[in-house]
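Figure-free illustration: sequence to structure, shown twice.
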Amino acid sequence: MGPAQRIAGGVSSLRARRRRRSEDRFAERFATQFAQQWSQVRADRRASEPPEIQAGASNFNRAQVPWGVDVAAAWSWRFLVMVGAGYVLLWLLARFAVVTIPLVVALLIAALASPLVDLGDRVGLNRKLSSLLVVIGGLALVSLLLTFVGTQVARGASELADQVVIGLGEIRTWLREGPLNASDSQINEYIAATQDLVTSGNDEVVARVTEVGTTIGHIVAGFFIVLFATYFFLADGARIWAWLVRLFPRAARMRTNTSGQVAWKSLTQFVRATVLVALVDAAGIMIVAAILDVPFVTAIGVLVFLGAFIPMIGATLSGSVAVLVALVEHGWIVALLMVAGVILVQQIEAHVLQPFLLGRFVSVHPLGVIVAIGCGVLVAGIAGALIAVPLVAALNAVAQHLSDYPGGSEESGTEVVQVAEGAAGS
């Protein structure tokens, strides 16, 4: 093969390679365009179909608030729930006050008289019989005291009435000749205004005759509830408490049982301390009245003793009776001396007896006593003042007991069931 032929063959092979390269580029461009068009067609087809739902992990995050705000909010809604529950409970107690107040009074009486029933058990007397004897004896004692007071007042009623007339005359003379220098016309106007006030009040009193009758009915019903409840609390108190303990979950029965025992002990100590304070108040005011030659000394002492069961204010209110009797019987000077005597007795009670007895036996601060009485008066009047202090004493004792409690378990729950069943069988 000559050189010309070799050159021609090289040129033809070069052209063939170029042609194949161009064909390959065309095929590649065609494949790329076809793939793009096919992808576009599939995308348009999918756009007309409903979207697919893809499941996966939640991306929800808790709101990021400061730690103090979170804690305050948690305390706030729990506090509101507790206040609401307490309000509903107080409303129910007030709604059924005709039953609840006598039951609480019976519980206080049972706490006072339980040592006598326990003494009957130790000497071999049947508990139900000893409870009946204690209730009847207590009722007879109170009846004798009130009868004695009524008899003493009835005997001196005529003399006391004469003294009241004389005392009113002295008041009239003091208004005319004293620092007020009131004229007879002014005094008569004051008297007429007082009579008009009393007369206008009579219409309202007459309009409330039905309410008075209802109140008397409630008092009679409450009296019998107190009698029967006191007897059953003394005779079957262990069975009643065992039944109440069984209403709680098993894990909480031991704490409930021990808390009830602590509350009962605190209540018993409070009632005993109150009796001692009442005796000292009555004896002190009787001594002052006897020294000042005030009539009805024994009757005044009985009233002070019974009134002292209303904490802080009962002895003062009943002691004011002695001041009025001294005013009517002997005049202003003796009345002022009687006021000084009542204040002296109250100071001894407030600074010696109350801190020593209540602080030692019940562990309630005097400020707590005052606050409890104020809240009790606002909620339930005189009955609230009577109930508030023993309730606070019991709650304080239970709170201290639970704060020192080691903890509960299923074994403790089994143990309290045995305790309750043993109490029920006694």
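We now fold a second protein in the same way, so the two outputs can be compared directly.
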Amino acid sequence: MAQHPAHESPLGKSSAYLSQYDASLLFGIARATKWAELGFTADNLPYVGVDIWNCYELSWLLPSGKPVVAIGQFSIPADSPNIIESKSFKLYLNTLNQSTYASFTEVAALLTADLSAVAQAPVQVELKTLEQVTSEGLQQPLGLCLDDMEVNLSRYEHPQLQQLSCGTEQIEEQLYSHLLKSNCPVTGQPDWGTVQVHYRGAALNHASFLAYLVSFRQHQDFHEQCVERIFLDLQSCLQPEFLSVSARYVRRGGLDINPYRSTEFTSINNARLARQ
């Protein structure tokens, strides 16, 4: 079996937690490997999108020595050459803890430069106070929740296009499910998420889609790649006029990852769900 591209990253290994700024800890994982498995390159991706990361453990020192806490939002283009490996991201953010910066603006500029260099594409950074995030509150996903459907399930490892079915009626609808679970391909740790789908196309059989989502339960892949697979399989099944797929993942180590893939850019709501 081919070695996973994250093998050389800090993922799944013992690591020292440094408290002084060190951008060298960031580790990029090339997206091209997974793109090639799906038959694509950076020049012919069938979607547009972004990966939104939210950081809830961000702190640094003012020149007076007083600490500041903030919440960070990082938007990484879905066509960037590299994913930023999550553990390296956490280790890097920890190095700000005992480092001194005069303002939110200075920290945001530093994060923008470092993350963009590793992703090899422009990364957008926004820092917020806890009061700002509190005022934004929680959101409820739009559309129909599939989780109360009665379905019989026995497959948990290999989500496949053949599991999906649709009718001939052309409709527009929004669906969501909180039952997505997959596993990290390096450590095997569980990743929990909520999938949201909006499409115009052939009417998707809801039971088939719920069974398809649950079949990710023992599947091993990164958050971004799970969402891309769901997008591509739905696109193949529905032949939609419009399709967007996003997932809101439960945070780990103070970071949550929220990939979004679509046939066209639409507004993205980054408000938290209940499990985030």
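Summary for the second example: The chain has two domains: 6-10+17-136, 144-262.
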